């Protein structure tokens, strides 16, 4: 009877042992899952914003770590590339020196011949670019819209037609390449003036001590334009502060080194400008024009003649009175008043004003009554017009209506304070060709102004 009892006890113990082993295995498996589970799974299982923010921070840290790893790798590769380039250059130099040692005469002659041939070919190409460009000779254009305009600059500012993203008609050169370009051009012009060649017309007997040396402070103004398939042309003007002679240097950059085109001395001390103004009515504007004429032409420049071509009878006496008043107050009598009893026509007025001059050749400036100019502009007019070769069409900066520009003020500021080159105050009227400086013989050779525009 005891044996069956002992078998039951053994079976019961075995059963409990198996159950304990199963529980122990389950516990070990649970602990393993808890220890080896990814951190993101637990974070992702958290509800709400906390889980999401912790996930973002983890991925941002992971991305930053990867980015730093790639940057370090890129830096290492760049350093290795630089070292390889240096080693390659050293090996190339060694190989070249060995070849020269083996056959110095033959290799030297071939290398020198090749170098000279390359240099001659380059110079020939650059000179051909100058010959193709509109520098020394003019080009026939289909209309005025085919003209490539010049942009002007001083040592501090650039007056630009293509204003780009800034939309500033006048600005200091912001881009480094533009600043470096203009500085290089000014210095190249000084090099041409201070170290002239025989072809520049300087006397060979004149020593360096007798010749005036120019510096950056003597640079007055410059003009440049780019023909996109040929190069950039520069017209530079220099003048000593106590002198009246200007040095004019023309440079051309044929998408390569700067090349001198010409260097000459320009004397404008005896160049008279006949300012021709067609007018009808607008006596208040004419009185304001004469105030500026008094300040600029009579008191400063002193080398001008004024020709007023007046249309009609209404306001004629007032215009005469203004001219006579200025003549009495300033002792200025270099003016002519041409009266035409007909309808206003600007082209006819300019034509009559040009033909009213009876003293031979003269430089003319066709001007409107609402134009404000300075003494510096009159010198620019003299420097950029040449009889039989060049006429000068200045690009006018047109001001917006002051009543709109200064609408937040009780009254607009004085005219002198309105004359600023800003995108909110006006724009470059690069499509207008009404203002021009040209010599009388050139104008008469062409014929006359068009009478269609009134």
From TrEMBL:
Sections of the chain in a coiled coil: 60-101
GO terms of molecular function: glucuronosyl-N-acetylgalactosaminyl-proteoglycan 4-beta-N-acetylgalactosaminyltransferase activity
The EC number(s) this enzyme carries: 2.4.1.-
Enzyme type, top EC level: transferase
Compartmental location: Golgi apparatus, Golgi stack membrane
Keyword entries, A-Z: Coiled coil, Golgi apparatus, Membrane, Signal-anchor, Transferase, Transmembrane, Transmembrane helix
InterPro entries: Chond_GalNAc (IPR008428), CS_glycosyltransferase (IPR051227), Nucleotide-diphossugar_trans (IPR029044)
Record-level GO cellular component terms: Golgi cisterna membrane
Membrane topology, record value: Single-pass type II membrane protein
Major localization class: Golgi
Family matches, as Gene3D superfamilies: Spore Coat Polysaccharide Biosynthesis Protein SpsA, Chain A
Record has Amino-acid biosynthesis as a keyword: no
Pfam family membership, one: CHGN
Family: Belongs to the chondroitin N-acetylgalactosaminyltransferase family.
Protein name (database record): Hexosyltransferase
Organism: Daphoenositta chrysoptera (varied sittella)
Classification lineage: Eukaryota, Metazoa, Chordata, Craniata, Vertebrata
């Amino acid at each position: 009877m005891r044996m069956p009892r002992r078998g039951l006890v053994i079976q019961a113990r075995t059963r409990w042992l198996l159950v304990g082993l199963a529980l122990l295995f389950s516990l070990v498996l649970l602990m393993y899952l808890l220890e080896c589970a990814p951190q993101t799974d637990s974070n992702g299982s958290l509800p709400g914003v906390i889980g999401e923010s912790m996930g973002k921070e983890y991925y941002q840290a992971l991305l930053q770590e990867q980015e730093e790893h790639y940057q370090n790798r890129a830096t290492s590769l760049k350093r290795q590339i630089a070292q390889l380039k240096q080693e390659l250059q050293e090996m190339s130099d060694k190989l070249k020196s060995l070849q020269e040692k083996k056959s110095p005469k033959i290799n030297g002659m071939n290398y020198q011949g090749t170098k000279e041939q390359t240099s001659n070919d380059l110079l020939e190409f650059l000179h051909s670019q100058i010959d193709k460009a509109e520098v020394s000779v003019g080009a026939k254009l289909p209309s005025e819209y085919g003209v490539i305009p010049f942009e002007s600059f001083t040592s501090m500012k650039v007056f630009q037609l293509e204003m780009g993203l800034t939309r500033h008609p006048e600005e200091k050169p912001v881009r480094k390449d533009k600043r470096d370009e203009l500085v290089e051009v000014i210095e190249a012009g000084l090099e041409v003036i201070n170290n002239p060649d025989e072809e520049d017309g300087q006397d060979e007997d004149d020593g360096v001590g007798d010749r005036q040396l120019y510096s950056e402070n003597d640079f007055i103004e410059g003009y440049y334009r780019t023909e996109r398939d040929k190069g950039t042309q520069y017209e530079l003007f220099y003048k000593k502060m106590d002198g009246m002679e200007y040095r004019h240097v023309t440079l051309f950059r044929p998408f390569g080194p700067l090349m001198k085109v010409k260097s000459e001395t320009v004397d404008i001390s005896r160049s008279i400008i006949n300012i021709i103004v067609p007018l009808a009515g607008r006596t208040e504007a004419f009185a304001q024009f004469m105030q500026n004429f008094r300040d600029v032409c009579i008191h400063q420049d002193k080398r001008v003649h004024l020709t007023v071509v007046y249309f009609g009878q209404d306001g004629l006496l007032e215009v005469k009175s203004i001219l006579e008043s200025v003549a009495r107050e300033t002792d200025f009598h270099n003016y002519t008043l041409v009266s035409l009893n007909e309808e206003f026509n600007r082209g006819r007025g300019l034509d009559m004003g040009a033909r009213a001059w009876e003293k031979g050749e003269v430089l003319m400036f066709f001007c409107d009554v609402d134009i404000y100019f300075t003494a510096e502009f009159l010198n620019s007019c003299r420097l950029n017009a040449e009889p039989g070769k060049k006429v000068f069409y200045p690009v006018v900066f047109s001001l917006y209506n002051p009543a709109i520009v200064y609408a937040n003020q009780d009254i607009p500021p004085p005219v002198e304070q309105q004359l600023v080159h800003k995108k909110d105050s006006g724009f470059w009227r690069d499509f207008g060709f009404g203002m021009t400086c040209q010599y009388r013989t050139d104008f008469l050779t062409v014929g006359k102004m068009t009478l269609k525009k009134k």
